[in-house]
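User: Second chain of the day. Same drill as before.
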Amino acid sequence: MKAEALFFPPQVVAFMNSRLGLYLDDHPFVALSLLMFVAVSTIPVAFFLIFVVTTVIMACVGVIVMEGVVISIGGIALLCVLCGLGALSLGVSGVLSVCYIILSALVNYWCASRSQARKQEVNGSSPQKSLSVMDFSDDKRKNK
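Assistant: Same format as last time:
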């Protein structure tokens, strides 16, 4: 066992015993140049990785924010449409209710006046007609 095997971790010993490790051991200038390149290139690589990570994070946040904005706008539009439909349905049902009440009152009045006229005919007395339900054909006969 060599002396350097006592001071270095097993991975370093394995690398130094490989062909590349033996070549770098024989050529110290190439080893120093490679070491300097790796040391100097770590800063730009780190900046690039930070840029990539922040870009990915900002893109995800941007997509989430844009999706939230679009969903919020869609929800507000849906709420406005539903409120408009609710107001429209209230208005239509109000108009229909008023029409129903008026028509039912007119039908009840018409049926009541006809039944009263029939009762008077059955009793033998002539029906007294009010101005609202008067038959104007009688007036035409009198004028002739």
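Residues 49 and 122 are 107 Å apart (CA to CA).

User: Great, on to the next one.
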